[in-house]
Specification:
With 208 residues, the chain is of the alpha/beta class. The chain is built from six helices and seven strands. The strands form two sheets. The protein has a four-stranded mixed beta sheet, with helices on one face.
Amino acid sequence: MVGRNGQVTVRAPVGVSTQAIDALLDKKRRWIQQKQREWGERQPLLYRKQFVSGERFLYLGESFPLEFSRLEEDPFPLKLSRDTFFLDERWSDRARDLFVDWYKTRAGGIVRQRVEFYSQQMQLFPQKERITSGKYRWGGCTARRWLSFNWRIVMAPLQIIDYLVVHELAHIRERSHSPTFWSIVETFAPDYRASREWLKSHGDELNL
């Protein structure tokens, strides 16, 4: 596996010789090098936001510019209005925290709505859903039927959010990623393969 930083990780059964692993790596060398090149090409795009005027931020798959202003009549220092994020200039030093809070609030509302919708469709009901801040994990489902979703997913198109909701709800019935599990997912998210590939290709862009 070629990880997010271009590092190669090899997982092999106990007892497999070093020679066999080396032979496999040699066989896959061109593929590994290609993936590492792709990672290197993506690196300039994956920078931390600077929170300056004109910088663009994702929400539900669309990109909106940031502008600074004085929000005298608005109690909230950050808002999305008229296809633009407006941030009160007096709060510029806390821009990242304000964006995280804004995204978490929107994620909570949207995820709750989609969970309620698909729970009825699938007849699978969680005990609780919560918004988390994990770096790499998009969602989860515990044995107690507690669902979790990363707040960053609200930057993605609604189709991707729906896929994740269906994915985690399906785990209530089927804990493993078995053929039965994917059959459940496909019933309610027919394009799940495309959504899964979208996350692999664009997941790193859903960040601040």
